[in-house]
Specification:
single chain, 301 residues, alpha/beta, TIM Barrel, eight-stranded parallel beta barrel, 14% strand, globular, disordered C terminus, binds flavin-adenine dinucleotide
């Protein structure tokens, strides 16, 4: 747990994030981030599409505290939407409200989100609101609900480590939802700390949304959970069109392909851009074995 906390605190370090901005992908990040430019991301998306895998694409950025930067992030996402449309890619958008100004002003953030969702709506492209830490959860849900009054191409994430997750899953059961375990460090007042408690809640949330909800994205690299889901959908006769497995770019590629070959829908989360640092540190926090990505790079020099 100490190692996890260490990497999560590194992920929140703004000075290191700014320093990382100046350089290309370092420390092994290139194996889990699909490049620093839109062009590089498109190449990766196309390769995945050719293998029968769809993509949810994240123009990286988070915790923005400057209005100009938030507007720039919006412009980059709009360019990504145009590219998905023009290149006819099998892809949709993942974004973080804090990259669009949530920490600056909620109305400003909402306007940025609305511009993005409206453009994506014109092209029939889905937009997922990634979920960040607890203090940003309710404001993000509020903006989502407001936008959903006018647009049906929006959905979000339920993080299984939160005590409130089941209430949120019920509230958002008519939305397309991605169910995850949760990636941030949260206090015990709001979140389960024990891996078993999180896993049990995760499975119950997945089953609930599969049985009662709209489309479900099961986002995990955990083969035991994937095995359980396969069994559950077969037992309850849930059609493959109603759900997909999601995994992160560069992780468990064999399993991604195996599931696609078995006829399941598979969607890979493709992050790209200069703001790779926080995303990469959270991946190191999740799985100590990922540190081998770093050591390989350092010792191969
Ligand atoms: P873990 O709990 O990390 O691992 C469980 C077991 O699975 C391990 O013990 C091991 O046996 C096996 N395993 C895991 N990874 C590997 C591997 N690489 N190779 C071999 N075996 C492995 N979190 C958020 O808070 N907000 C979000 O919006 C969000 N979006 C996400 C989107 C996607 C597509 C994915 C995949 C994750 C997202 N997450 C998000 C992160 C998520 O919350 C978890 O932190 C992360 O997925 C790690 O949990 P896990 O379920 O993959 O498995």
């Amino acid at each position: 747990m100490a190692l996890r906390d260490f990497f999560i605190s590194l992920s929140e370090n703004q000075a290191l994030s700014n320093a990382a901005h100046q350089y290309g992908l370092k420390l092994g990040a290139q194996s889990v981030v699909a490049g620093t430019s839109l062009e590089e991301a498109i190449t990766s998306i196309r390769k995945l599409n050719e293998q029968g895998i769809s993509c949810t694409v994240d123009s990286l950025g988070e915790f923005v505290s400057d209005e100009g930067e938030a507007v720039k992030a919006k412009e980059e996402i709009l360019a990504l939407i145009e590219a998905i449309h023009l290149e006819e890619l099998d892809a949709h958008i993942s974004l973080k409200p804090s990259q669009l100004g949530l920490d600056i002003d909620i109305d400003f953030c909402y306007d940025n989100l609305r511009d993005i969702v409206e453009r994506a709506y014109e092209y029939g492209i889905f937009v997922n609101f990634d979920m960040e830490d607890y203090k940003r959860l309710q404001p993000s849900f509020d903006m989502l609900e407001e936008l959903a009054k006018s647009f049906d191409n929006v959905g979000t994430v339920i993080q299984a480590y939160f005590h409130r997750a089941k209430d949120d899953a019920e509230q958002f059961k008519d939305y397309r939802l991605r169910i995850v375990k949760g990636a941030y460090k949260e206090p015990e007042e709001v979140a389960y700390q024990d891996k078993l408690d999180i896993d049990i809640n995760f499975i119950e949330l997945i089953e609930y949304h599969l049985a009662h909800g709209h489309f479900t994205s099961i986002a995990t690299h955990d083969h035991n959970i994937i095995k359980h889901v396969k069994y559950f959908v077969e037992q309850y006769d849930i059609p493959k069109e109603k759900f997909e497995f999601q995994m992160l770019y560069g992780f468990r590629k064999d399993l991604q392909l195996e599931l696609a070959r078995e006829g399941y829908q598979v969607c890979v989360y493709v992050p790209y851009g200069k703001d790779w640092y926080g995303y990469f540190m959270r991946r190191l926090a999740e799985r100590p074995q990922n540190i081998s990505l770093v050591t390989k790079q350092v010792f191969n020099k």
